[in-house]
Amino acid sequence: MRLAIAHDYLTQRGGAEKVVLALAKAFPDAPIYTTLFDADGTYPEFSSMDIRPSFLNHVGPLRRNHRAALLALPPAARSVKIDADVVIASSSGWAHGFQTTGRKIVYCYSPARWLYQTDAYLGDGAGLAKRVTLALMASSLRRWDRRAAAQCDQYLAISRAVAGRINDVYGLDAAVLPAPVTLTALPDSEMETVREIEPLVREEDSYYLCVSRLLAYKNVDKVLDAFAGSGRKLVVVGRGPERDALVAKDLPNVTFLQDLSDAQMSWLYRHCRAVVAASLEDYGLTPLEGAIYGKPCAVLRWGGFLDTVVEGVTGVYFDNPDPRSIAQAVTALEEIEWDPRVIANHTSQFSEEMFSSEMRHHVDKLVQYA
């Protein structure tokens, strides 16, 4: 059986790209098709893989900034043709529309946010030009998007919330397959110290950790405001278009980091007090990565976090992504005596082995009934 993997664009480091790495490990002979591939911007493991980008990849500025490529992505997606018996399309907007000669399974992180959750995607700070561009393109893109979805053979959703969204947008039923936790617990000797944070750890001054792409709907600005003037230390890891505005808040108790290795992330999780996340999240991966090291979390009671966090056992919820609610949740977290072993054991149901086994099952089933 000839199998291929498809992904929207490989230009950044995030949870979706970690899923693609897990798929590549499960299906090592499968080439990976995508619109854009920036080896320097994404995980280094991709550099040794068979990556097949679209014609758009020749345009360097777009390769390094996929958000600027929005107008060019529809023709780029339509141009990708995959000759394979089965394609696993890892998608939140484009890869499900790649042309293929065989069957197609879509592993969906969400129907395109910029089409169906535009206000949340753009946030309050989006400029008029971006809003007008999306408004002009939205109608034709929705038609293309729904036609692409209708031509797929099976949808898998990353969470129950996304499965409901797939049904609402496309009228399709989707089985839920949780994304794997690919970060593994490392012994201290294999971790890599993050020098910017080392003084805090050396002085036993614990910090909270927020790991996120810096986009409007991730609500990292609300997390910063919750920590402002609190005396609590916060470390934010991630990159994105909101970074300059967040850094401009100039909070002395907040440190910004980006482009860290797994060994460095392990070190950060190992030494943090807890993970904090206020994003409108399709899944909820960072609380699970922290849980590997027995760390609790304070997260928004929304979307994918409902699948990955057990209230009072692995973390606490807050009901609204506003600074006051976040600060209250962090205070509540500090008043609970957490059991690190129970928290760590919770992650076993999200293992990479279970994810790979379930994905192979769906592929085999699709071929069997072809």
Walk me through this protein's architecture.
With 370 residues, the chain is of the alpha/beta class. 38% of the residues lie in helices and 16% in strands. The protein has 16 helices and 15 strands. It has helices at 15-26, 60-63, 73-79, 113-116, 118-122, 128-150, 160-170, 198-202, 220-227, 243-247, 262-271, 285-292, 305-308, 323-334, 340-345, 352-368; strands at residues 3-7, 32-34, 51-53, 81-82, 86-91, 99-100, 103-108, 154-157, 175-176, 207-211, 233-237, 254-257, 274-277, 297-300, 315-318. A seven-stranded parallel beta sheet has the order 3-2-1-5-7-8-9. Strands 12-11-10-13-14-15 form a six-stranded parallel beta sheet, sandwiched between helices. The chain starts with a strand and ends with a helix. The model has no long low-confidence stretch (mean pLDDT 92).
List descriptors:
Glycosyltransferase_grp1, transferase, alpha/beta, glycosyltransferase, globular, 370 residues, 7-stranded parallel sheet, 16 helices, 38% helix, 6-stranded parallel sheet, single chain, transferase activity
User: What's the pLDDT, averaged over the residues?
Assistant: 92
Structural class, please? alpha/beta
Strand content: 15-25%
Query: Helical segment tally?
Result: 16
The radius of gyration is: 20 Å
Write down how many β-strands occur, each being a DSSP E stretch of 2 or more residues. Answer: 15
Shape: globular
- What is the straight-line distance between the termini? 13 Å
Largest sheet: 7 strands, parallel
Sequence stretches where pLDDT stays below 50 over 5 or more residues: none
